[in-house]
Amino acid sequence: MNIVLLDSIQRSVLSTVADLLIPATDEMPSATDAGVPENLIDMVLGYREDLVAAFLDALTACSGRDPATALDELAGNSPEKFEALTLLISAAYFQSAKVKAALNYNPAPRAVNDDVDTYIDMLADVVDRGFTIR
Amino acid sequence: MTNKKSNEKNADVLIVGAGASGGVAALELIRRGFTVVCLEQGDWALNDDFTGDKPQWELARLKQWNAAPNTRAAASDYPIDTTESPIEPLMYNGVGGSTILFSGHWVRAMPSDFRVRTLDGVADDWPVTYEDLRPFYDEITHHIGASGLEGDPAYPDSHTFPLPPLPIGKYGLTAAKGMDKLGWHWWPAPNAIASRKFKDRGACVRYGSCESGCPSGAKASTDLTHLREAVELGANVITGARVRELTVNDKGLVTGAEYIDRDGNVQHQAAGVTVLAANGIGTPRLLLNSTSSLFPNGLANSSGLVGKRLMVHPYASVYGTYEDDLETYLGPTGQALQSMHFYETDTDRGFVRGGKWNLMPTGGPLTHTLWQPGTNWNENFGPSFHNRLQSTFGRYTEWGITTEDLPEMHNEVIIGDSFDSDGIPAPKIRYKISENTQRLLDFHVARAVEAHEAAGATSTQSIPVVRESGWHLLGTARMGTDPANSVVDEWGRAHDVPNLFIIDGSVFVTSTGVNPTATIMAVALRAMRHLADNRTDQRTAL
Asked: In degrees to the nearest 10, what's the CA dihedral of B416, B420, B422, B423?
């Protein structure tokens, strides 16, 4: 994995764009509050090196410009760059412990439980309804 | 590509491809005392290679572990021209084959699937019946450690499973209640995923990453269920070996295969019998690339049917959004429920045959926020980002519909204009969805919407044909009794080449309407057992 480190100007642009894409709500942090422009973006850039060039191009295209206008142009004229930018920002956002907590996201691993008892009575009806086998 | 070499060690049997059927063949034949060499263009994968238990999973499944070789573009993959197909073929090229990435739906075909000409007046009957395959279904189901519940009334026999069913979860129970309201068939789904520790495999821990590789080893991929044991018993699995051509002698027997090793050298592996197990695209590609003076139109192709009659099971997804958090990010993926309610023909519907439904979870949060080029980004991002996430994440389930497409001559695998990284001509597929299949899809999608609504969905979203759904590559070297209209006999032996066998999904006469891996492996086991039982009568090239 090659580590790609953004400079401070790139991180500033990223923060602005990312917060437009993922703003704060009463329940959810913004992209910047979640830490996207810092370590999290560094991490996901390492996961998808194939997207690094398009991502950096997208950041450059947004630099010094009204972010909404820049994103409109990227989405329309350079969808692969827009896709790289938004995919990596979103992926970085979901790496955040704050975000997982806010989503009440409790992913695996989990032990496999046996839940046949919750539906075994219903299956009796399925069997009673029968099935025509040809 | 220099230095053509011969492998000094001839094999009784050469198997091309170490996937679902190749794994079955390797283990059966090595157990029966044959010397076995298996050529596989990819590599072994370790559980730790898979990312389902790692933070990069949702990103890696879109690229490094994408099921579409054209997207994944790994060194072991070959390009497939899909410019004339609405369906993108999916596969994995490595030890275990596509069972590495399959979702593990372990479904038997129905008795009617083998008699569609007799029952429905379409396509062709198979030269084998459900009863012929039944003992092989049973044997493999118990060998691999499938999980399920016996007694499904949709089948004529209460076939058993060695492991209890996986949990159907909150979303499964919700969907089941909806099906009961409608009086429709459903059953806790059979999966090739261990619900308990089985042999040397651990139980599923519900990552839900089955379609990008199982990091816990619970899924019954054939690298784990067959090929490791085959190697322990002496089978030689040569990885990084891309076969470019099967070779023949002047008697019309296949003498083995030329392949390109990972160093770029051309090698020849000689064998008395050759078994093709390279899937419904790889197998016809290899046969069509194997031309000679005796076989100018490709090997085993006197019928002209090699590559023809491609069937891919066009797949529809119907999603329901529910108010409650149903934990739809939990695996397995895998199926929670299946329904065969609309499987059999009812001509009042305006089409013949039917499809099988599977209820599935919908993955982690990133899945729900992906932007599609050409769409308004404001509908994905800004306030919409959170609105979408809140309404779908954990609350969104899929009724997926596997539809039976019937064989048609214009749906085919041919040799295209491109080449793989070893300079071997690459395949192209030409495929059109038939009118019968389109009507079938329309009907089933409408019914699946009703199923979600009956279960309490607050909204539904339908994708009538999912482009990235071509898991099931079938029919391109069909079996039959007449050499004029089939490529192999019921035992997989090529009519034209008596020591060449084909045992993958290519040999399917019709596609059935279910996930085919159980049938592929049952057909392969039946064929290889017959080969072993009749070895004294088998012509060989050595």
From this structure: 30
pLDDT at B3 over 80: no
The token pair that represents B395 in the structure block:
């609350």
Mean pLDDT of B55-81: 98
Instruction: For residues B324 and A127, give the distance between their C-alpha atoms in angstroms, rounded to a whole number.
Output: 29
What whole-number distance in Å separates Cα of residue B427 and Cα of residue B528?
A: 27
Helix (H, G, I), strand (E, B) or coil at B422: coil
Rounded to an integer, the average pLDDT of A15-40 is 98
Which of B112, B119, B167 has its CB closest to that of A114?
A: B167
Q: Do the beta carbons of residue B334 and residue B188 sit within 8 Å?
A: no
Phi, psi of A112 (to 5 degrees): -75, 120
CA angle B309/B432/B297 to nearest 5° reads: 40
The answer to whether the CB atoms of B119 and A79 lie below 8 A apart is no
For the cut 80, the answer to whether the pLDDT of residue B299 exceeds it is yes
Over residues B165-177, the pLDDT tens digits come to 999 999 999 999 9
pLDDT in tens, B472-500: 999 999 999 999 999 999 999 999 999 99
pLDDT score at B158 = 84
Residue B224: pLDDT band by 50, 70, 90 thresholds?
very high
Query: With DSSP H G I counted as helix, E B as strand and the rest as coil, what are the percentages for chain B, rounded to 5?
Result: 30, 20, 50
Interchain contact, A44 vs B59, CB within 8 Å: yes
Q: Using an 8 Å Cβ cutoff, are B272 and B452 in contact?
A: no
Measured CA to CA, the distance from residue B486 to residue B489 in angstroms comes to 8
pTM to 2 decimals? 0.97
- The yes-or-no verdict on residue A1 having pLDDT over 80 is no
Q: Evaluate if residue B7 carries a pLDDT over 60.
A: no
Instruction: Output the CA–CA distances (angstroms, integers) from residue A32 to A7, A90, A101, B107, B108, in the order listed.
Output: 16, 12, 16, 47, 50
Dist CA A98 CA B458 (whole Å): 28
Give which of A72, A78, A119 to mutate to test B binding, by max B Cβ within 10 Å. A119
Residue A101 sits at the chain B interface (C-beta within 8 Å): no
Tallying the residues shown for chain B, one arrives at 542
Is the predicted ipTM greater than 0.90, yes or no?
A: yes
Contact B274, B13 (CB under 8 A): yes
Closest-CA distance of chain A to residue B366, Å:
6
Q: Of all residues in chain B, what percent carry a pLDDT higher than 70? A: 99
Query: Do residue A134 and residue B216 have CB atoms under 8 angstroms apart?
Result: no
Chain A residues 25-84 within an 8 A CB cutoff of chain B: 25, 27-28, 43-44, 47-48, 50, 71-72, 75, 79-80, 82-83
Q: Is A108 close to B164, i.e. CB distance below 8 A?
A: no
**What is the pLDDT confidence band of residue A87, given thresholds at 50, 70 and 90?**
very high
In chain B, the percentage of residues whose pLDDT exceeds 90 is: 98
Smallest Cβ–Cβ distance between B183 and the set A47, A87, A129 belongs to: A129
- Which of B173, B187, B206 comes nearest A108 by C-beta? B206
- Could you tell me the CA-to-CA distances from B253 to B115, B243, B486, B533, B539 in Å, in that order? 33, 18, 19, 21, 8
Tell me which residue of B427, B431, B425, B426 sits closest to B412, measured CA to CA: B431
- Kindly give, in sequence order, each residue whose CB lies less than 8 Å from that of residue A60, ignoring residues fewer than 6 positions away: none
Determine whether the interchain pair A134/B166 forms a contact, defined as Cβ–Cβ distance below 8 Å: no
Residue numbers in B near A94 (CB within 8 A): 58, 364-366
Amino acid at B179: M
d(CA B364, CA B361): 9
Substitution target in B115, B375, B377, B378 with the highest count of A β-carbons within 10 Å is B377
